[in-house]
What we know:
It is built from 6 helices and 8 strands; from the N terminus they run E-E-H-E-H-E-E-E-H-E-H-H-E-H. It is an alpha/beta fold.
Amino acid sequence: MAKKQKYYVVWTGHTPGIYDSWEACLKQTHGFAAAKYKAFDSKAEAERAFAGPFSAHIAKGDSQKTKPKSVSRSSIVADSISVDAACSGNPGRMEYQGVVTVTKEKIFYQGPFEGGTNNIGEFLALVHALALLKKMEKKTTVVYSDSKIAIGWVKAGKAKTQLERTARNGQLFELLERAEQWLSTHPVRNPILKWETERWGENPADFGRK
Length: 210
């Protein structure tokens, strides 16, 4: 079933107005102190609401179903790196990268590698980010990933992939071994957090090929 269209009214934000996507609403409210906004089920409702004050739409008992899933993106840690991977096929050609969360400035990119999987790419991206932060002596910088599996592998210190090693993906397995070795000799200090896609939109490191 297709997701029902929502319209978002921004009374107070970077550019007040009516927006037809959660991502567009976030762009106008993220980082804006005391932003005021709310979601509506139709454009007509949104237009009527925008013509009046925000206070008229925050009465006690207001339905949560008409509000955005998140009040704001203020819970995102600014001092952070976001990582992601992309894979064409499973297994297939895989690549991964890391960016500055706030600006999306690319910090590193690796690939493409043949015969890989998305989970392997996510794992390698996490370890790459952790090793980079270790080298830079940034012990408190957060690393975001939208892969629960990869985060679990890093915490376990091992990539629990079922992928078979072949001549095609030999280089990739060498990188996995190096990553696991690094984890075994370097305690992870930096916080690794799950990127909440449904609340915040796409991971800043996403390759944009969905």
